[in-house]
From TrEMBL:
Record's subcellular location: Cell membrane
Topology term for the membrane: Multi-pass membrane protein
Primary location: membrane
Pfam families: LysE (PF01810)
Keywords from the UniProt entry: Cell membrane, Membrane, Transmembrane, Transmembrane helix
Protein name per Swiss-Prot or TrEMBL: Transporter, LysE family
Lineage: Bacteria, Pseudomonadati, Pseudomonadota, Gammaproteobacteria, Vibrionales
Alphabetized GO MF terms: amino acid transmembrane transporter activity
Gene Ontology CC: plasma membrane
Keyword Transmembrane helix in annotation: yes
Coiled-coil blocks: none
TM region positions: 6-27, 39-62, 74-92, 140-162, 178-194
Length: 195
């Protein structure tokens, strides 16, 4: 890859990972509800799962969608269904009086697996491989994956830290409830924008 291709890829990776989407909204909600430290497995699960997705798409999974367009429709319906489930789960999380909030952060493996039903992750991976793996080689796939991993860590951390800063606003039960409603609404909007 030439320098200007790498700069273009880094720019695409930064813009696509830092902008709102299901991962970032859920990281913000997790940071707000359980803090940065308890959200670290979620962050690294996203990085691992998405990097693996890029590698597998680059090594041939993209051809499945090209040959069998119905698989793309099935994937899209599955993604939307799971995101709607997560939207409801975030909205219905509640805090009992004088008890800790029942929000459970995603584990490393849950976050890694979530990438496979995340429509934004799919569109990013397919675009990255289609546009930026110009050499059509496995080395190009690895470079694309590593660049995304390197940029995804700070981007995901920013959203988690923003969420953690929101903890100050969430000192009351009603504020926490409304914050989670807001996060659920944002997740719903980001899901509907991908339809």
């Amino acid at each position: 890859m030439e320098a200007q291709q790498i700069i273009a890829l880094v720019t695409f990776a930064f813009v696509s990972t830092i902008t709102p989407g299901p991962n970032n909204i859920m990281l913000m909600a997790s940071g707000a509800n359980v803090g940065f430290r308890r959200t670290i497995p979620h962050v690294f699960g996203i990085v691992f799962g998405f990097s693996l997705m890029i590698v597998l798409v680059g090594l041939g999974l993209i051809e499945v969608f090209n040959r069998y367009p119905l698989t793309h429709n099935i994937l899209q319906v599955s993604c939307i269904g799971y995101l709607l489930y997560l939207t409801i789960r975030i909205a219905l999380s509640k805090q009992e009086q004088n008890q800790k909030f029942d929000y459970k952060p995603m584990s490393f493996w849950a976050a890694a697996n979530f990438q496979w039903v995340n429509p934004k992750a799919w569109s990013m991976a397919l675009s990255a491989i289609s546009v930026y793996n110009i050499s059509d080689s496995w080395q190009g796939v690895i470079i694309v994956s590593l660049i995304f991993a390197a940029i995804n860590i700070p981007a995901a951390s920013v959203w988690t830290l923003v969420g953690e800063r929101c903890q100050l606003l969430l000192s009351s039960q009603s504020n926490t409830k409304y914050f989670n409603y807001g996060m659920a609404a944002l997740l719903l909007v980001s899901t509907l924008m991908m339809v």
